[in-house]
């Protein structure tokens, strides 16, 4: 517990609310890092792939004052996503890295990089935390800090290329075009002619793939969504009764997800635990459930849009990206 009352013998400069707020923020971030690192180090084999990804992402957010550690954590998260063939998620992590690099360089008196992020604004993460200019200047004044290895034009281009490739693998060709446009700006600004040829070729292929996907029988599968709720007061009290949306790859069947979740629960709590699937999709009275049994409720859901949103989301791609509201049907 951290007291919010500052002792009277503190120097005047430390009595400001801003200082206390920043101090509490730093302590809170360090606590987040420690808790998640311990979980990854000691319970990795018992964690589900969703828990592993969440822990890495939480660590990256907590490292907001140390951009180098933030980048290395995101690269670890990318490895996890690639291992699971979650290419769209890996691509977004690469974009997060790109935005950190751009932010660092634009706050380092690199005026050439002030306008480079324009095409990436639609991909800005919801929890994006920009770097403070004073922080960047302080980091650069540290002679032991080698920022050239992490925050350079070559690394920026490399990460953008990796993002582009990830989105192509995910068949998110429209998103890969946004990345390609960003690469074109860089290539033209710094006269990178061999790279410009490659970038134009990649964008041309993306447009061809989009055109092909519009043909009858050649549509893309962007993923399958399920609402998942766990019920178990005695063993899963932290997530008991909380609904989550699971995005599964392409045409993942409900039975496949159910079996994977059952194995995840057994891995975490031991094979002796009893796991049952609830067949009803409506509300559950958890008072009628055995608190020692893990119940899993899985419901197929689809993205839901208002009438105005439907008018603006004309393509299959737009109806399957940047979605946050879902609906399901009950008998």
Global shape: globular
* Cα distance spanning the termini: 49 Å
Give the biggest beta sheet: 5 strands, mixed
Number of strands: 5
Q: What percentage of the residues does DSSP assign to strands (E)?
A: 5-15%
| Helical content (DSSP H or I, runs of 4+) | 40-55%
Unreliable stretches covering 5 or more consecutive residues: 1-6
Looking at how many chains there are and whether they match, the oligomeric state comes to single chain
Mean pLDDT: 88
Count of helical segments? 10
Global structural class: alpha+beta
Helix and strand sequence: HHHHHHHHEEHEEHE
The radius of gyration over CA amounts to 23 Å
Task: Explain the overall architecture.
By secondary structure, this protein is of the alpha+beta class. The protein has helices at residues 17-43, 49-62, 67-83, 87-106, 133-140, 153-169, 173-189, 193-213, 254-269, 307-312; strands at residues 224-231, 243-248, 275-278, 294-303, 326-327. Strands 1, 2, 3, 4 and 5 form a 5-stranded mixed beta sheet that branches. Residues 1-6 have low confidence and may be disordered.
